[in-house]
Here is the input.
Amino acid sequence: MSDTSPVNRAEFVLIFDVKDGNPNGDPDAGNLPRMDAETGKGLITDVCLKRKIRNYVGIVKGEQPPYEIYVKEKAVLNKTHERAYEAIGVDISGDDKKRKGGGDDVAKARDWMCKNFYDVRSFGAVMSTGVNCGQVRGPVQITFARSVDPVIALEHSITRMAVATEKEAEKQDGDNRTMGRKHTISYGLYVAHGFISGHLAQQTGFSQEDMTLLLEALTNMFDHDRSAARGEMTTRGLYVFQHNNLLGNAPAHDLLDRVHIERRSGVDVPRSFADYAVSVDESNLPQGVTLKRVVAQELKKIAA
Here is the structure.
């Protein structure tokens, strides 16, 4: 039986790594891996991580309500807004749709979107473009991921033994080769922090079942997002600090700082997860806070 009860406040630490890949290219920098210019540490945007969560939920739940995905490839958002008004029985036909729907209609449309779209009730959304379905502030927020150590972006020349057009073949006298570039980092261990607001979860309907699905996605999302460009990406740790009430029992930073990652002695150039040691300070946890290490077998218990 599904658990639709609301969740309490929680924070989590997500640890994952990339080997011989480009985890998040920057289109403004020739698709080079994103980096902090001052420290040389690698960066991965929150948008990138949320995309992988959305894709995983779409695969697992088959894009069916209440687990449809609002922000997805080739989506036309205003068409989805129109679906919301149709579902609540409000006619917005006419030439001036931008001014249609107001007051109670917007609130009802917003509630319908939260109920049917997993990413809306999880991450929130601005749905006031064109057909107005209001705005939702999501209970789940994720920071940029940052690598533990600096990374170095490498550029590789690659060759395709084919050309796209006959004209290209004629220029090469039948040699038919196309040269390209591929950007990677050799290895990087990344850390992201996540925050779940019990107060906002009540407003959007984000439930215990949604929480379990979120943690499942964070654990397994890289296994369903393979590509030649991204190399090997793997979730290495997911540590959840669960509070026993909506407002929480301790400052977030006091809990998140308890997860420590150190390079092992004698390792000058990390090239695998085995080159690091992860430890968690569980001493004197604040009253009302529990720490849970998420593994596949524990996913159904974590939100309880």
